[in-house]
Amino acid sequence: QVQLVESGGGLVQAGGSLRLSCAASGSIFSSWSMGWYRQGPGKQRELVAVITSGGRTNYLDSVKGRFTISRDNAKNTVYLQMNSLQPEDTAVYYCNAARDIGLAKYNYWGQGTQVTVSS
Q1: Which of 24, 32, 48, 88 is the most exposed place for a label (fewest CB within 10 A)?
Q2: In this structure, are residues 84 and 68 in contact, taking their beta carbons and an 8 Å threshold?
Q3: Count of alpha carbons within 13 Å of 60, Cβ hemisphere only?
Q4: Which of 70-80 are b and which e, b meaning 16 or more Cβ less than 10 Å from the residue's Cβ?
Q5: pLDDT digits (tens, 9 = 90+) for 88-98
């Protein structure tokens, strides 16, 4: 079992920055792939960024060069640094922990944090 708690969302003007944090507990954090997803109004949830247990990263095309995902295994925390925010980045952002153990796939979600970018 993994518990995830996001923080850092808020209201920001276009061009501004925010840093989201996701604190994990309950399992060996370093073994999990950690991701940030978002769901905008009337849209499906989409993967924004992911960082594997080995530190490899991948990003949604529209955020490449603006967002950076990182993890601090000593603090059991994953971060999403968001720069040059645009109104289309407005969404609820969710933290995700994923891991395959044998044939079993595990996925856990945080409660979400609202990011609103005003034009």
Answers
A1: 88
A2: no
A3: 16
A4: ebeeeebbbbb
A5: 999 999 999 99
